[in-house]
Design a protein that fits this description.
By secondary structure, the protein is mainly alpha-helical. The chain has five helices and no strands.
Length: 153
């Protein structure tokens, strides 16, 4: 099954649980990062509004939106590259592609953690759970990537 932006979440979850190799945990991990960035954005954009439109916080929220978009792109890319990996019997360019995908999204995760850390003091208390969820989802993404990279070694 191909992964596409027009696919419903229910279809995507069904595809992950299907008896086919892709999409799999790499795509699920990328989705976790997209959700993390969305939760972080919510905590920042609403907090910015509560702080009279704090431009620094609003800019951080915009960066979270960009991270979420990059991670969503990573969902489809992982599925595509993992399919190539399977067809190549585990070597060459598909492995390099999967590692490059992981490295790019890990850099986004580092940036998301930096944004959350830099703005934690000004995130509205009512949105602390969103910020905490962003961190937990980021950690889940990182653990999935680490496990996948061990399997590719």
């Amino acid at each position: 099954m191909n992964v596409s932006p027009s696919q419903t979440l229910a279809d995507f979850i069904g595809a992950i649980g299907a008896d086919q190799p892709t999409p799999g945990c790499g795509s699920a991990g990328a989705l976790a990062l997209a959700l993390a960035a969305a939760c972080a954005r919510k905590s920042m954009i609403i907090s910015a509004r509560h702080r009279d439109g704090d431009p620094t916080l609003a800019a951080a929220a915009d960066r979270c939106a960009a991270i979420s978009e990059a991670a969503l792109y990573g969902v489809a890319l992982d599925a595509e590259h993992f399919a190539a990996f399977i067809h190549s019997h585990g070597g060459g360019k598909p492995v390099r592609d999967l590692r490059a995908d992981a490295d790019a999204l890990l850099a986004e995760a580092v940036e998301l953690r930096r944004l959350l850390s830099a703005h934690q003091e000004v995130i509205d208390r009512s949105l602390a759970a969103d910020a905490a969820a962003a961190l937990a989802l980021t950690t889940a993404f990182e653990e999935i990537v680490r496990r996948n990279m061990v399997e590719l070694a």
